Amino acid sequence: MAILSVLKRRSKVLLATIAALFILVPAAYAMRVSPMVIEMETSGTDAVARIEVQNINAGKLAFETRVYRMEIDKDGKITETPADDKFLIFPPQGALPPGGRQVIRLQWVGDPELATSQAYYVAIQQLPVAFEPGTDEAASAQVQVLYNMRALVVVAPPGAKPNVNASSVHQVEYQPPALPGATAKPPLQDGVAVTLRNDGRRHAMMAEFGWNLEGTDREGNFLRVDVSPEELSRVVGTGYVPAQGERTFNLPVPGFGPGPIKLTFAK
Q: Is there a domain that residue 172 lies in?
């Protein structure tokens, strides 16, 4: 038990340290959008949702909304297609004074009898603003930086449920993504590749759960690592698994050997 406790603590600390490398801390945005993840249904009260836009800039903020259908493959590659016709959005555009807020109303107007969940991005795109002559903004703003904030919106059939199982869990040496501005690829990472299969009609947000990994290390000793929802969200985001689809996630959890690894979920 002592060996297990030490290995568990070391693995969790290293996981948290490596996961921090994947966090991009942006400069202060000109706007704030909340919530960033919305789950809707095709009918009933859950067919309507709201997004709040706040201007946290010192100047005016003009924006417009666009909608894109998001399809994601097993390896996380995203394909986007315009889908403005699937939602009724009011107001579709707006202009906010410094500190101003605007609630945007979303209503699903697509197929009321979807077979499975569908995922969309609602993009809040900042528009260029003409500054008034003689103001400090006009004098100092030679270039306007325009932000594009995106909220994930997933629409599901009423009553649909996910059905997620781990189809593959094994030790892997994988290539982490390069940090912005890096000129060289980071070194290979010792970790665990987890492939999740969702046979249900509803999507799943698997970062809402704790993931418990059990197996053996390279010397054959028992090893267990518990990954919290907070740690998962830093590495895999929401852990989105599409309905009747698969996703593979690479976790920076070092130390496992080539033997079988058991994955269980804890709420």
A: yes
